[in-house]
Design a protein that fits this description.
Length: about 120
């Protein structure tokens, strides 16, 4: 399983950023994040078909996860950014084609830094 995240950087409060994850495999793919001094937390996940998506409460209505299987890429569109979105974002995947709330990912990619600041 290959997971390669990109697209992080500096965003302004109220602005937008889009993360990309090159993800191989026909399975659920998701995003976690870790802010300084905090534990890693779930952000979002999407099924292989894209028909099932899941979001953590802090990002619902602001972030959108999607995927383009022809490009083996999963996206995280982050809108209405807040300073508390500042974190290292990790692309993850779940083996077996199954996802449920609280499941620990089987594979982790390297992180990409997102900083929200004016």
């Amino acid at each position: 399983v290959q997971l390669q995240a990109s697209g992080g950087g500096l965003g302004q409060p109220g602005g937008s950023l889009r993360l990309s994850c090159a993800a191989s495999g026909r399975t659920f793919v998701g995003w976690f994040r870790q802010a300084p001094g905090k534990e890693r937390e779930f952000v979002s996940a999407i099924s292989w078909s894209g028909g099932s998506t899941y979001y953590a409460d802090p990002v619902k209505g602001r972030f959108t996860i999607s995927r383009d299987n022809a490009k083996n890429t999963v996206y995280l569109q982050m809108n209405s950014l807040k300073p508390e979105d500042t974190a290292v974002y990790y692309c993850v995947s779940y083996s077996g084609g199954v996802y449920y709330t609280g499941r620990t990912p089987n594979y982790w990619g390297q992180g990409t830094q997102v900083t929200v600041s004016s």
